[in-house]
C-alpha cells in the first residue's frame, strides 16, 4: 500500500477515541497499514506528542476489539503519531502543519500522499478544505483525499451548497463520504452474496419477493446529543443516509466482478427509480413517532421530552417507518418497508426478505398452515443469515412447522465498520462510500417528508419506550396484508 500521511482534524474528539484510533490499531495488527505511515493529530488543545500518544493508548484500551497491551508492537504503532495545535480558521496554522507533514514525509522517505480526515462538525468542512488548498497542503506531487463524516447537509439545498463549496478544493473522486453502515461487514457482503449465488440472483425479483423489511432499531435514547438530535430527528439522522443506503445495497442487481463505478451507477439507478412521494402523500406512507416513558430491559426510562436538553413541547421524530416503491423492472409492485427508532425493544439492524407463495399446481390444500419463506440478513449487533423454511413430520402429517436455518459469525471475527472504511480510503477504493449523486438523490427523495413534518401534515405518534414503535407502523404493513417479521 502506498505511503500515507493521515491528517486527522478533531484528534481529541469522541469519534477519534471511540472509532478511528481503534480502527487504525486493528489495521496495524492485521498488517493492513502502509509501511510508511504517519498520523498527524490536530486539535485546539495544547498537547505534547507524548500526552497525545498516551491518550491514544487509553482509547485503545477502552474501545479496541483487540487488546492493546504494552509492548513493542504498541510502541511501534504509537510511534507513528504526532500532534499539532491547530485553529481551524488560522491560515498560519496550516502553513505550520504543512512543514510538519513535509518533515515527516522526509523522515520516512515517503511520497506526499495525504489523507485528510475531518472528524469535526460539518460547519468546519468548507474552511478546512479551503485552507488545505490555499496552504499548499493539497498540492503536493502525491494524491490527496478528503474523508468526511455525516451529516452531509440538513436538507437538499444545504447539501448542494456544501458540496459546491467542497468541490472548489477537492474533486468528487477525492472525496470519501463516510456512511458507517456501508462499512458493516454484512452490508458489504450483500453485493457479493447476490453476485456469487445463482439461487439468490434468480429470486431477486418481484416474481418471487412479496416485500422487503429494513429495520434499524436501537435501545438507546437521545443520550447526550440533545443539541444535535433535536434538530435532525430520525429522518435525517438515520433514514436519509443509513436506511436508504441499505435499500440501495439490497436492491441493486450487479454483474459478476463489478467495479466500484458499476456499483455506484447501479445504486444511483435504484434511488432514481424510487417512486417520489408528494408532500400531500407523506401522511399515508410514513409514520412519524416519538418515544414516551417506558422500560428498556426491565429498567424505567423517561420519555423523549423529559430528556435533558429537550424542550417539553418538542415534536421531533425519534422513530420513522415508511413504505417505499422502486419503479423498475425488478422491483415494481414490491413494497420496501423501512423502520428505524430510538428506545425500541431491542438493538437490531436487519433486512428481512419475504417470499411469495407460488400460486397454482404447487399449492396444497393445507397451505394455510405454512409460514412464508423468509431470508434474513442480520447486520448488527449479531451478524448472520437465516432462512426460514417449512417442514412437517412425514409420518403424522399435521401442521407445517417453520424451520430456521441459521448461519452466524462470532462477534470477535468481525472487523469494525471503521476498519473496513479506513482501509478502503487508504487504498483509494470508493465502493463503500456515498457518492455525491446518491447523497443528493437521497435528500431529494426525503425532502417532501421534511416539508410535511415541518408543516405538521403527519401526526406525531407516541410509543412507549421498550416497544416496537407506534401501532400505526404495524398498520402500514397490515393494509397490504403484511406484518413486521421477528417482532415477538
Ligand atoms: C449514527 C447516528 O449515525 O448511527 C446515531 O447518528 C445512531 O444516532 C448510530 O445511534 C447507530 O449506529 P449503529 O452502528 O450502532 O447501528
How confident overall, as mean pLDDT? 94
Which word captures the global form? globular
Heteromolecules bound: 6-O-phosphono-beta-D-glucopyranose
Strand tally is: 17
Strand order of the largest sheet: 16-15-14-13-7-12-11-8-17
Q: Helix/strand/pairing class, anyone? A: alpha/beta
Uncertain segments: none
Please tally the helical runs, counting DSSP H or I stretches of 4 or more residues: 14
Write the layout of secondary structure elements.
Blueprint: E1 4-9, H1 14-29, E2 37-43, H2 49-63, H3 72-78, E3 81-85, H4 91-108, E4 114-118, H5 125-135, E5 144-148, H6 156-166, E6 175-177, H7 185-196, H8 198-203, E7 209-217, H9 226-251, H10 260-272, H11 282-285, E8 286-292, E9 294-296, E10 299-301, E11 319-325, E12 335-341, E13 348-355, E14 374-380, E15 383-391, E16 401-409, H12 417-427, H13 436-454, E17 460-464, H14 471-478
Parallel strand pairs: 1-2, 1-4, 2-3, 4-5, 5-6, 7-12, 8-17
Antiparallel strand pairs: 7-13, 8-11, 9-10, 11-12, 13-14, 14-15, 15-16
Helix pairs in contact: 1-2, 1-12, 4-5, 6-13, 9-10, 9-13, 10-13
Residues 216, 218, 237, 349, 380 line the site of 6-O-phosphono-beta-D-glucopyranose (BG6).
Give an account of the 3D structure.
There is one protein chain. The chain is of the alpha/beta class. The protein is 36% helix and 22% strand. The protein contains 14 helices and 17 strands. It has helices at residues 14-29, 49-63, 72-78, 91-108, 125-135, 156-166, 185-196, 198-203, 226-251, 260-272, 282-285, 417-427, 436-454, 471-478, and strands at residues 4-9, 37-43, 81-85, 114-118, 144-148, 175-177, 209-217, 286-292, 294-296, 299-301, 319-325, 335-341, 348-355, 374-380, 383-391, 401-409, 460-464. The strands form three sheets. The protein has a nine-stranded mixed sheet with strand order 16-15-14-13-7-12-11-8-17, with helices on both faces. Helix 4 packs across helix 5 (125-135). The structure holds 6-O-phosphono-beta-D-glucopyranose. It catalyses: D-glucose 6-phosphate + NADP(+) = 6-phospho-D-glucono-1,5-lactone + NADPH + H(+). This is Glucose-6-phosphate 1-dehydrogenase. Belongs to the glucose-6-phosphate dehydrogenase family.
Amino acid at each position: 500500500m502506498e505511503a500515507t500521511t493521515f491528517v486527522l482534524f478533531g484528534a481529541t474528539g469522541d469519534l477519534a477515541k471511540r472509532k478511528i484510533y481503534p480502527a487504525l490499531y486493528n489495521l496495524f495488527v492485521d498488517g493492513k497499514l502502509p509501511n510508511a505511515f504517519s498520523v498527524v493529530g490536530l486539535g485546539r488543545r495544547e498537547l505534547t506528542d507524548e500526552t497525545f500518544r498516551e491518550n491514544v493508548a487509553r482509547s485503545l484500551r477502552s474501545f479496541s476489539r483487540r487488546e492493546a497491551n504494552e509492548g513493542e508492537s504498541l510502541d511501534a504503532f504509537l510511534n507513528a503519531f504526532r500532534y499539532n495545535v491547530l485553529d481551524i480558521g488560522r491560515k498560519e496554522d496550516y502553513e505550520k502543519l504543512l512543514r510538519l507533514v513535509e518533515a515527516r514525509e522526509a523522515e520516512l522517505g515517503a511520497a506526499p500522499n495525504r489523507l485528510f480526515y475531518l472528524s469535526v462538525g460539518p460547519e468546519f468542512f468548507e474552511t478546512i478544505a479551503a485552507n488545505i488548498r490555499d496552504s499548499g497542503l493539497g498540492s503536493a506531487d502525491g494524491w490527496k483525499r478528503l474523508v468526511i463524516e455525516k451529516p452531509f447537509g440538513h436538507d437538499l439545498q444545504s447539501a448542494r451548497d456544501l458540496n459546491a463549496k467542497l468541490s472548489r478544493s477537492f474533486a468528487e473522486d477525492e472525496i470519501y463520504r463516510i456512511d458507517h453502515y456501508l462499512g458493516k461487514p454484512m452490508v458489504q457482503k450483500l453485493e457479493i452474496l447476490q453476485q456469487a449465488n445463482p439461487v439468490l440472483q434468480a429470486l431477486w425479483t418481484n416474481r418471487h419477493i412479496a416485500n422487503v423489511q429494513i429495520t434499524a432499531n436501537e435501545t438507546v435514547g437521545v443520550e447526550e446529543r440533545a443539541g444535535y438530535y433535536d434538530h435532525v430527528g430520525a429522518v435525517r439522522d438515520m433514514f436519509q443516509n443509513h436506511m436508504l443506503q441499505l435499500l440501495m445495497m439490497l436492491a441493486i442487481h450487479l454483474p459478476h466482478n463489478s467495479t466500484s463505478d458499476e456499483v455506484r451507477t447501479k445504486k444511483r439507478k435504484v434511488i432514481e427509480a424510487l417512486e417520489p412521494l408528494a408532500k400531500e402523500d407523506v401522511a399515508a406512507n410514513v409514520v412519524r413517532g416519538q418515544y414516551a416513558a417506558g422500560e428498556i430491559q426491565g429498567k424505567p426510562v423517561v420519555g423523549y421530552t423529559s430528556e435533558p436538553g429537550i424542550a417539553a413541547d418538542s415534536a421531533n421524530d425519534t422513530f420513522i417507518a415508511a413504505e417505499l416503491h422502486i419503479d423498475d423492472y425488478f422491483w415494481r409492485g414490491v413494497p420496501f418497508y423501512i423502520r428505524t427508532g430510538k428506545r425500541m425493544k431491542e438493538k437490531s439492524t436487519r433486512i428481512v426478505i419475504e417470499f411469495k407463495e407460488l400460486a397454482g399446481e404447487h399449492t396444497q390444500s393445507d397451505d394455510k398452515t405454512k409460514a412464508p419463506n423468509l431470508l434474513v440478513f442480520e447486520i448488527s449487533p449479531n451478524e448472520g443469515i437465516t432462512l426460514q423454511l417449512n417442514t412437517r413430520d412425514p409420518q403424522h402429517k399435521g401442521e407445517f412447522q417453520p424451520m430456521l436455518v441459521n448461519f452466524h459469525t462470532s462477534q470477535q471475527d468481525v472487523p469494525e465498520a471503521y476498519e473496513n472504511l479506513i482501509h478502503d480510503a487508504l487504498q483509494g477504493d470508493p465502493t463503500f462510500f456515498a457518492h455525491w449523486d446518491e447523497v443528493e438523490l437521497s435528500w431529494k427523495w426525503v425532502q417532501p417528508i421534511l416539508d410535511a413534518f415541518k408543516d405538521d401534515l403527519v401526526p406525531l405518534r407516541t410509543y412507549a419506550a421498550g416497544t416496537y414503535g407506534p401501532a400505526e407502523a404495524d398498520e402500514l404493513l397490515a393494509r397490504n396484508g403484511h406484518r413486521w417479521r421477528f417482532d415477538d
